[in-house]
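User: Okay, second chain of the day. Same drill as before: sequence in, structure tokens out.
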Amino acid sequence: MWTSWGGCMKQKNKYNWVAVMGKFDEGKNELIFKGSKKSYPDQHGKETEHTAMGLFICDRIFTGGSIFAEVLFDKICEKSACDIVLYYEPGNKYTVNAGLTHAPFCIRHFDTKWFYHAFAGEKGNLKTKKLYYIEATLNGSQVSLFVNGVEVVKKNLPYVVPQSQVGIFCVDESNITIRNFKVINKKPTAFVVMEFSSQYNDVYSEVIKNICDEQGLEVLRIDEKKGPGIIIADINKAIIEAKLIIADISTDNPNVFYEVGYAHAYLKPTVLLAEKKEDNKLPFDVSPFRTLFYENTIAGKRKLEEGLREHISAILSEKINRV
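Assistant: Same drill. Structure tokens below.
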């Protein structure tokens, strides 16, 4: 069976959930976070009140795209929050979140403490018994939060968010109801930077595109983009929204090196390729980076395939490299 949400079609499948932290009740297409306020002794034996927190993770792997949920607060307290978890590291409970807080809209991550990347709205604007339709989108390192169809906050993160299982994070003294949680995956993108010439087009079509397709990546080269627009703006947008960059720096092409520099500025995982020459000498600024040198022959392309496959697999399996 298929259902429609926001113009997207998706299969109605069962999600399996586990409460990593806090208490939840699970119903038909509905989760209820059991909020509370409890007193715990601190290290000096003094009783301190804490608002309950909950982290509920489902079995869906999120590679990028959109996550939807309907949220209803029974009551609102100073610490009330309900976030969509876009990324979760099970070993240490690190998360990347987008959702409703006292801000009331924010994009944040938690490692050893909370770090707020972006927030909007006035404190106290969350309402009791009001149904909020929230959507968090992830494209490469760009996160957007929509509430009731309005884009309320958007941020380019200083790292690429890897694929992981996802879920819900809650804080409240009272119950929070989450309904119709949906994960809509979009293939991550590899943006390819190279000189547009017949000599290198074969490497692109016969090696790069095939390996990216094998690794579950969409491939974009800027000359393939259709429609009106300013080229440099399209390039910058494509780099920000890409999961990784593949750059062939065989020639001293200023456009290529500009785009590599822009990708490095956004801390994008970048795979550098270069055709073998007599001295294999690269420009000083890129020479410290690991580069896949290849011969533009049948045997050389097979070797390039092996190296590119290994590099992409390593990037896709990496955890977040926060700075």
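The mean pLDDT is 88.

User: Thanks, on to the next one.
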